[in-house]
Amino acid sequence: MSDTVIDKTPNIIIDPTKVKGDRKRRMTVGEIVAFVLLILLTCTMLFPVIFMISTALKTSKEMLQFPPTIIPETFAWDNFKTLFTNDEIKFGILYKNSIIVAGLSVVGTVFSSALVAYGFSRYRAKGKKIMFMLMISTMMLPYPAVMIPQFILFSNLGWMNTFLPLIVPTFLGSAYQIFLLRQFFMSLPNELYDSGKIDGCSEFRLFWKIALPLSGPALATVAIFTFIWTWNDLLGPVLYLSSQEKFTLPVGLAAMMSSKFRIAPYNLLMCASIMTTLPVVAIFASAQKHFTEGIVLTGIK
């Protein structure tokens, strides 16, 4: 008697028209309306950027035409060259000053905030929660409340018309950044630190070799926030800087609107705005993955 295998699997007949219909689901009226509204909203938000680029590529004569044109009749690419070669604007010096202030501020804020956040997340001590709450409460103080005492302090130190008042405070930590990094450090398991202690690591080496390498997304988030805030800061440089050779980009852009020019050079101003925006866009685009990951991970606790 031979063994026979009987296939009892039922034959399933698939109607190709139904599959095709499922794949090509028709959009409802509400979805179409929402899609159209999103397109209109996107175009509305992009219009200032388009107008900025258009004005930057116009000649001085076409810039004053009414009604204004969106596409320039002649693309004046020399406006960017004029921006950097104009002796009154000195855009190259402004750019260099902003890079120095923003770069050192990022280094100071990331290192000092990470060090303080590591201490708040690792150590147990009496009064630690009170100290942490006092630090967090400083975020509720508006800047004008501390602006005058800081101005008097830096003036007595002889730091006026230097970059020191803009850079040195960043090496003392930032309450918001400390809170952000503390939340991330608290999510790291203690077993990592225990294994490091077994290998003979000191406390600073635990911070440098274990905590920091694992907190890349959070550090990237802090660096991006600090760079944007410092790069766009106008009030601080206006308070402490008095010579044009020390001005940063926000102060320089505001000075271009002054009465020094008979007619404000809006085409050069738009060129400067494009050049000012490019570093922020480039940094955010290159670190977008780490930025979003850092925002998500710091909320785990």
From TrEMBL:
It is a multi-pass membrane protein. It holds the Pfam family BPD_transp_1. Residues 95-287 form the ABC transmembrane type-1 domain. The chain crosses the membrane at residues 32-57, 99-120, 132-154, 166-185, 206-231, 263-285. Keywords: Cell membrane, Membrane, Transmembrane, Transmembrane helix, Transport. SUPFAM superfamilies: MetI-like (SSF161098). It is found in: Cell membrane. GO terms for cellular component: plasma membrane. One of its GO terms (biological process) is transmembrane transport. The keyword Membrane applies. PANTHER family: ABC TRANSPORTER PERMEASE PROTEIN MG189-RELATED-RELATED, ABC TRANSPORTER PERMEASE PROTEIN YESQ-RELATED. Belongs to the binding-protein-dependent transport system permease family. This is Carbohydrate ABC transporter permease. It comes from Paenibacillus anaericanus.
